[in-house]
Amino acid sequence: xxxxxxxxxxxxxxxxxxxxxxxxxxxxxxxxxxxxxxxxxxxxxxxxxxxxxxxxxxxxxxxxxxxxxxxxxxxxxxxxxxxxxxxxxxxxxxxxxxxxxxxxxxxxxxxxxxxxxxxxxxxxxxxxxxxxxxxxxxxxxxxxxxxxxxxxxxxxxxxxxxxxxxxxxxxxxxxxxxxxxxxxxxxxxxxxxxxxxxxxxxxxxxxxxxxxxxxxxxxxxxxxxxxxxxxxxxxxxxxxxxxxxxxxxxxxxxxxxxxxxxxxxxxxxxxxxxxxxxxxxxxxxxxxxxxxxxxxxxxxxxxxxxxxx
Amino acid sequence: xxxxxxxxxxxxxxxxxxxxxxxxxxxxxxxxxxxxxxxxxxxxxxxxxxxxxxxxxxxxxxxxxxxxxxxxxxxxxxxxxxxxxxxxxxxxxxxxxxxxxxxxxxxxxxxxxxxxxxxxxxxxxxxxxxxxxxxxxxxxxxxxxxxxxxxxxxxxxxxxxxxxxxxxxxxxxxxxxxxxxxxxxxxxxxxxxxxxxxxxxxxxxxxxxxxxxxxxxxxxxxxxxxxxxxxxxxxxxxxxxxxxxxxxxxxxxxxxxxxxxxxxxxxxxxxxxxxxxxxxxxxxxxxxxxxxxxxxxxxxxxxxxxxxxxxxxxxxxxxxxxxxxxxxxxxxxxxxxxxxxxxxxxxxxxxxxxxxxxxxxxxxxxxxxxxxxxxxxxxxxxxxxxxxxxxxxxxxxxxxxxxxxxxxxxxxxxxxxxxxxxxxxxxxxxxxxxxxxxxxxxxxxxxxxxxxxxxxxxxxxxxxxxxxx
Lengths: 309, 469
Known about the structure:
The complex is a heterodimer of chains A (309) and B (469).
Chain A: H1 2-32, H2 36-45, E1 56-59, H3 62-67, H4 70-77, E2 81-83, H5 92-103, E3 110-114, H6 142-151, H7 154-159, H8 168-177, H9 180-183, E4 202-203, H10 212-227, E5 231-236, E6 241-242, H11 249-257, E7 261-264, H12 286-308
Parallel strand pairs in A: 1-2, 1-3, 3-5, 4-6, 5-7
Helix pairs in contact in A: 1-8, 4-12, 5-10
Chain B: H1 6-21, H2 24-40, H3 47-65, H4 69-106, H5 124-139, H6 149-157, H7 170-178, H8 185-217, H9 225-256, H10 274-280, H11 283-297, H12 304-322, H13 326-345, H14 356-378, H15 382-394, H16 403-426, H17 430-436, H18 439-456
C-alpha cells in the first residue's frame, strides 16, 4: 500500500505541476493568438487604448457576427462600431458575461444585442455550455464567476487551469497560422456565397416555454447598460424560416417593459422571399449582410437622431 | 452510472479501498452489492432482470449436473430459451413487429401490430450471452456448475464488464472469484495505466470524433460526399475509441481489484483482411460466436458452400446482436460476405512471406472496407446509409471542416498510431521495453495522458455507443 500512496501522490503532484505550467503556456498562447474567438475577446475585454475608442458594440451569436457589417455601420453612423458576435455563444448567459468583461475596461455609448429564441426560451440541452468559451477569463469578474458557479463548472476550472483551455487551444494555435483578426472587418466575419442556397424554410414554433433564469439575465443585461449610461437596443435579424407573429411576442413584451428599442426583422419577414441572400437557414452571406446592414443602420440612425433631438 | 462520470470517480475509489481493507470472505459480497448499485444507478427496476437471469441460469445449470444426457439437453434448451426470450422481448419484439407490418404493407394488408415500447435494459445482450455461454460450458462439462449463487450472480453482474463487456467465459472468470486475492502493486499500477489509456481513447478520441460525426450524420442533406467520407473515417475511429476505451477501463478496473479479464481488442485496424479484423475486433464476442454458433454449425471443416452458409449465419446473427435494426443485419451480412469472398480467394490469412508494401496495401484496403461498412452501423436507417455511400461517389466536394476538432483528432490519432505500431512491431525491441519499464516513464505516461485529456478530451459525460446493445 505504501507504493500505491507514493504512486498516487507522485501522479497528483505531477499533474498539478503539469496543469499549472500548461495553463500558463495556454494563457500566453491565448493572449497573443489571432484565432477567431481569442482575437475578438482580446478586442473586447483587454484594456487596450484603441478599443476604448469604440462607441458601439454589438453582441450576439454567429448570426450577429455574420449579419452586421461594421464598416457600413461606422460610416453611416459616424461612430466606431465593433461587432462582438461570437459563434456558438448561443444564449444570454454568454452575452451577459461578455458584457461584464467588456465594461471592465471601457465605456460605451451604445450596445446592440442580437437576440434569438434561445435567449429567453427553455431548451432541452444544458444552457450553460455556451460559457465554456469564457473559461480563460475566470477570476476576472465576480459576476462572470457567479455564472460559472450557477453552471456548476466553476470548481472544475479552479481545479484545472488546463481545462480552461479545453478544445480552445487548437483554435488558438491555428490563430498563429491564419490571422482571423485580419480577415475580419472590426469583428464582422463575412460568409462566402454558398454553392446551394437553402431550399426549405424551417418552421418556428409559435410559442416557447419561458426560462425565468434567462429572463433574469436579460433584465440584468438591461440594468447593467442603464447603470453605465449606455443605450441598449436589441435586434432580431432575418432568418429563412416560417415564423408566426407570436414567435417573438415574449421578447417584444420584455423590450417594452424595459423600455428597450427592438428591431424585429424576423417577424416582419425581411428577405423571406430571398433565399439567395442566405448562406443557410440562419445566416446571411456577405451580399445579404451588406443589404441587411444598410437597412438596419438606416432604421437605427433614425432612432439615434430622435434620441439626440 | 457510466465510467466517464463524476459518480464513477467517487464510486470506484470507495469500492477499491473497502475491497482491499475488508477480509477475503466478504469481498465477493461487496462486489455483488457494488455491481447491483452500479447497475441500479441507471434503472433500479431492471436489476430484477439480471437477478432473474442469474437465478434461473444458475438453477438450471445446477440441475444439469446430476441428470442424464437427454435431460441435460432439455435443461440447456430451457436455459438458452429463457435467456433468449428475455432478450427477444426487450430487444427484438418491436423490431419483428415492424418487419411484419412492413411485409404485410407490401402485400397491401393493413396491420397495426401492438408494440411493447419497452426501454432496452443496458447491457442486456452482454450479460445474457455471458449467461448462455456458462450454460453451454456446463452442458459440455467444460466447467463444473457453480454451487454458490452469490458467486454466480457476481459472475453475471460483475460491474466492470456488466454493461458493455468484455463477455467473459465462466472458465476464465468464475474460478477467480474463489481465489484469495492478495493486493499487488504491479497489478494496481498496470490497471491504473490501462484505465487511463481507456479514458484517453474514449474522451480524447471517440467523443471528439463524435462531435464531427454527429454534425454530418444528423444533417445528411446539408452535406456533400467529401464530408460523408470524412465523417465515415471519423466514425471508424470513434467506435474504436469508444468501445476499446470502454473495454480498457473495464479491464483496468478489474485488474486493480485483482481480476484478469480477457482482452477485447488487438489493434484491429492493422488487420490484413476482414477475417483477421474479426479476430482482433471485439474478441470476446467474435470468439463467443465462433465457439457457440459457428463451430456447432459445422465451422469450416465441411464443404465450401456449407462453410459459407455457416459464416453468413454467424455474421448475420452477430449483426443482429448489435441492434434490432436492418442496418445492423446488413452490416453483419456484408462483413460475412466479404469474409466468404476472402476465404474463396485465399486471402483471409496473412501470408508469412508478406512484403511490407503488400502488407501496407492489404491493411489499407481492409481499413477502407471497414470504413464503408461502418456507415451502415452508424446511419439511422438503410436509406441514409445508401445516400451517404452514393454521395461519396457522386457528390464529392470540399468537406465541411471544423479545424479545431479535426486538428485534435489528427494529434490523437498520430499518438495512437505511434502506440499501436510500437506494440505491433517494435515492443520486442529491448531498448523500448527497457525505457517503458522505468518508473519515471510510467508516472510520466499517467500524468501526461491525464493532462492531455484535460486539454483535448470531451468531458461532458457522453454515453458509450455499446451501451445500447
